[in-house]
Amino acid sequence: MNAEDVIECRVLTGFHCLPFAQYTTPHTNRRCEHEAGMTMIGASIGGRPVGLAVFSCQNDSEKASLESIFVHPDARRRGVGRGLLQAVDSTLVERGVAGVTGTWYHDARSAAMVECLLADFGWSDPVPSSTVHRGGRRLLDHVVGNSRVTRLPAGFVFDSWADLSSDEIVQVLDLREVHEMGVGLHPDGETMLSVSSETTVVLRREGEIAGWMMHHELDRETLRYSSLWLRPDLAGRGLGISLAIESARRHLGLVERIPRLFFLVVEGNDAMHRFIARRLQPGIDRSSILMRSSKALIPASSDEK
């Protein structure tokens, strides 16, 4: 075999990551630079970078997440993708990780290739995990224009994240433990993105923080509507919808500077899916289904079967 045909896959560190950075998103590159547990595996042919796989695995975790995999079009159908997946598997097995999960958009140009590659390498059949909706001014105009002015019950007021004191930020963080809040609902669960202090809305009841609509800054022009949380005893009073509408109203005031947004709804949240279809669909620019697949790396012990 010619040396120029040999595929080399290796874990990347330091400046060795730079030639491969083009093969994933800026956000993933930032995570690799600053977030513990992110690992890049680069593929080269004849010393030329041709592909990249990135996975995330926290210390002592039994599961890893395949964050991205990409092969340069000129190097496809040469076994680069299989080489990257093999390197991911062997690296994770060496670290004692029992399984790996990956997600991708159903309408991505590479979706069919990714599905075939994972299937050939023993991954499970893909299933929908959530739907990502994208929009901008048209969606904000639709939400605000078709919503009545919010009249909160007595004792409730909206506040801005920017107006919270440092002590109140600590109180918000403490709520995570009190209410056993999932990471996705909590501002401290996002380590790489800044909270949008101008558009994130806090709900107070008699001065106490009782809920929020949290936005994060994905980049200078895009907000991620990350989480809508309401104290459990206040559910069913329309306060969650009021929070969402108020946050959209504030975003609309800044839409010239921040023109894009997206949000995610998990599979199984039928009430939210129905609400979007009934109330928001006319303003949404694009909706993509996030598919999920997984692979067991270490067989379960006899005691676990």
What is this entry, summarized?
With 305 residues, the chain is an alpha+beta fold.
Give me some keywords for this one.
305 residues, alpha+beta, Aminopeptidase, 2 domains, 13-stranded mixed β-sheet, 7 helices, 13 strands, 32% strand, elongated
Describe the structure.
Helices cover 27% and strands 32% of the residues. The model has no long low-confidence stretch (mean pLDDT 89). Strands 1, 2, 3, 4, 5, 6, 7, 8, 9, 10, 11, 12 and 13 form a 13-stranded mixed β-sheet that branches. It has two domains: 133 residues, Aminopeptidase (3-Layer(aba) Sandwich); 148 residues, Aminopeptidase. It is an alpha+beta fold and 305 residues long. It is elongated. Helix 4 packs across helix 6.
In CATH, what is the class of the largest domain? Alpha Beta
Number of separate domains: 2
Low-confidence stretches: none
The percent of residues in helical segments reads 25-40%
How does the helix and strand content classify structurally? alpha+beta
**What name does CATH use for the topology of the largest domain?**
Aminopeptidase
Bin the strand percentage. 25-35%
Mean of all residue-level pLDDT scores: 89
Rg on CA atoms, Å: 22 Å
The assigned CATH architecture of the largest domain is: 3-Layer(aba) Sandwich
Main pleated-sheet profile: 13 strands, mixed
The count of helical stretches stands at 7
| Global shape | elongated
The topology string of helices and strands comes to EHEEEHEHEHEHEEEEHEHE
* The CATH H-level homologous superfamily of the largest domain: Gcn5-related N-acetyltransferase (GNAT)
Distance between the termini: 44 Å
The total beta strand count reads 13
